[in-house]
Predict the 3D structure of the following.
Amino acid sequence: MATHALAPATTAYRPGLYEWLTTTDHKKIGIMYVINSFLFFLIGGFFALGVRAELAQPGLQIFTDEHVYNEFFSIHATVMIFLFIIPILAGLGNYIVPLMIGAPDMAFPRVNALSFWMLPLAGLLLLSGFLTQGGAAASGWTSYPPLSEVGPTKSPGPGEDLWIVAIVLIGTSSILGGINFLVTIFKMRAPGMTLFRMPIMVWTMLVTSVLVVMATPVITSALVMLFIDRNYGGHFFDPFGGGNAVLYQNIFWFYSHPAVYVMVLPAMGIVSEVLPVFSRKPLFGYKAFIFATAGIGALGFSVWAHHMFTTGSVFLPFFSLMTFLIAVPTGVKMFNWVATIFRGKLSFSTPFIFAIGFLTMFLIGGINGAFSAAVPVDFALHDTYFVVAHLHYVLFGGSVFGVFAGLYYWFPKMSGRMLDETLGKVHFVLMFVGFNLTFFPMHMLGLQGMPRRIADYASNAGWNDWNLLASIGGFIIGISILPFIWNVFISLRNGKVAGDDPWEGNTLEWATSSPPPPYNFDRLPEIRSERPVFDARHGRLTPHDEMGPA
Amino acid sequence: MTADAPALGVVETGEVGQPTIIAEGHVARGISNPILGMLLFITSEVMFFAGLFAAYFSTRAGNHPWPPKQFDSILNPLSLILVATVILITSSFTCQFAVWSIRRGDRTGFIRNISVTFVLGIVFLLLQAYDYSLLFGEGMTLGSGPFGTTYFTLTGFHGAHVFGGVLMLGVILYRGMAGQFSSRHHDAVEAVSLYWHFVDVVWIILFSVLYLV
Amino acid sequence: MSSTPRKRLAPEAILAAVVVILLAVLVPLVVYSGAGSSLFPPTAVTTQAKGTRGLYDIVFALAIAIFVAVEGVIIWSVIRYRRRPGDNELPPQTHGNNLIEIVWTLIPTVIVLYLFAISWNTLNTVDAVSSSPDMRVHAVAAQFQWKFEYLDNNGKVIATQTEPDAAKGGGLAVPVGKNVLVTLDSPDVIHAFYVPKFLFKRDVVPGQTNRFQFTVDATEATDGHPNVFGGQCAELCGTGHRTMLFNVIAMSPGDFDTWLQALIAKNNATPPPAPSGAPAFALTAHNVAFDKTSLDVQAGQPFVIDFKNTDAGTPHDVDIRQSDKTTVVQDQPVTEGGAESTYTYNALQPGTYVFICSIHPTLMSGTLTVH
């Protein structure tokens, strides 16, 4: 057992806060990503509750200045997408990927730190728009020109410019992170870990990083051009100056569609780690899963104009076909997950429950997306609350539940303590009920004709009851966060000690202490399959020894 | 049974082109991390320019005549800009000579070639700036219609990338003079030269699209 | 207790089967009953909308089937395969099954190709634009009001409707059973023409004229019994986005002819002269702002505002409201961009009011003091 370890790095540790501010350790950076992103989750949630409070009943009760309402939903979405979901998945990936591949850190630790610190700065810049004369950005998170250009009834103030700068900063942070992940995954795997023995979480981070590196610069170019239009007399998107308003949409969605896979693939990776562990069997169809993920990544670049079906400028059949086709690899993954739990031996710990929540809710999001792929139906549903239902079923019912599965699963590894199971289950039940109560009625609202992004609606439109239900659900979601926060607080101080491997995990992070030492591993087990720790626990040397009853 | 952890020991370097043994069981293969990182970074920059080019072509297709009458022959390929183009292409050659020098261990040759590249890069920027002033004098600016906006956006961002490249060249020039590079260890030089070639290729495409087509 | 060695139905299996069967029965029952009617779009009133509705129904049926099937297997598994406490045996470590995986890749592919085929087919009906429509309308969406122009076969404007609200005597009137071509333009930002009962919307993009056609079903209106449909802008266009409502009024062809003649007459009518002796005030709208922030008038006497709208493409008006900016005292019709109007106001009691543009209330208002 003796190892010729390097002299421990503990003497080089800087004290307390200074350590956290200057660290390049991927584990600490990952934790900071998670904490920062969670704070922005609460901020984004605050804006959402503002929207729901206004829409609970017909009539303008809170936002007598409709511009502020427009700021609220614009900043809600911007914060949730760019400051919460994308970074929290990047952060969980940052923490776990080097551990899962047996590496001591990411390829570029200092760039890793830079990537993180750009985020709180960008968040502050974005939110500072509220303190300016014209308020924060108010033309939606999509910021379409000409509304996002300069003019008395458009977006004259600096809030929109701050929004642009913030997104460009966040995009840069993302791209640097994506490069870091790709080099780490390709070059720093432990001996024996071939590509087809990597955990699915690592595969999804790989495909996600390819999307990030290739798509994010495109939105940077769109925003840079918008900035030039706004501040330097440019005419890229000004139709009365030789430009084209729809051009922006094409460039914007070329990024923003792959972006939704950036927002969901790592969460799918988490689910693919959690389900096998708590079913006590391997992921069904590991290789097919990888090809499906790569297929989604590739196809994801071909569907962007399905966000623009009603513009009258899109070659409809092509984008409709590609959008329908992308349902196939997504369905394959769904079936793989279901086949994993089928005939397993299921333990209902909190990570597993959230993963099941992902499965059941993401399915609904995938199904209601198919409606919009049918172009004539999209003509009815585009820009209505039906789309709001769809996006929240995939992003909240999917990604957010996946994130919580990952947080409950890896909290013991990160902190050395177990989270309380009862509080976890209370969190899940409240969140699941609140989520469905908020977003299921939005299917009805969209079908009955309620458009998006309106501060108020006619009291005789027949939308009152669904809106009230949705608002109540929204506040239940808000309440559901409280048991989680309380759980983290008490468990950090007093939680049960976790040990190396509290869940009987499959992958390498469970082969080291909780939390791991700064250099991650003292020793690594032999890597002969995608489940090296499982193999070590069961004394297997070849990947396909079958055990147990046939 | 799990094997003992590989012994961590003295770093042994192999000859150029041979695998480098960092520790028993760990072998550095193929492309190095910094160079792979730079290639990926260049990929992202290509996509950034792709977005700008897409906007250029779309704008050009929607505006007739192109160039507009007032700027009909303002972009003359046979002018100062041709000199700048030749200078930038030459700098790519001198940059590659510098890479070959350091691969051979020829530190003097490396410093000489990198210095020339560095200077040529600065000359390109100065020529570009002067050319801009001539265009401004003739009334073509960022705000003078789609022709001006697209021209200055594309060439402006290219110039910004050249400036970044010049800074990087300055850094490896400094490090080279401080003796930090050898035939075995010069990843930064390889990476910067890849970036510099990328900047040159973008310019060739830009020049062709803006001036020749 | 663990199950006996011989094959006997585990209690979990029975529970799981019951729950799944309940799901498979109740879900379709509920969604296809009256309670589920809000899961379907409103009744289609145009021929195109009926095509879209047919497509929706097929997609919906498939959606319910897939939902019940997949959720059913998940719920079955979650109930049936619960690990019993103390059971440390591993279940069969199935890594995959090539045949099953091929089948469950091929079947969804076939399903989505089928869905694509039928939706493309429906699209060709919905998006069809014939070169000889029965009627042409030009809809102009500005921030924040709709305007409708009726065109003759050469595209010349024969009548203009600046009031989009049917309750105020306006709206887009169309004859039933006739093919109406709508062209869409905007002088400012992107809007969208959306009528829920048409199951249809189309963006109004500045710099680009979009077009679509519809035929309201002949049964939707008869002589003397028009039918009013609600419409709304469905693309965020600024602070007045939620107020950009309009109506489509379906009428019998006979009623429509009468209505159109009345509109033409109203367009051509000379406005009544201002009451003699009434004081006149000049007011201009420029860059979505009034050039005056306050006006003083005498109580008990009608007065006139000579209003000039210099904002090309942007409609304005000058209404009088109480100082709460909401309670209407007197409404005025819209003045189009580039036009002038002479607005006559009734006598007012002494007090403080506001004069306000109803289309841009937050940007354009001023104090009206009545002595």
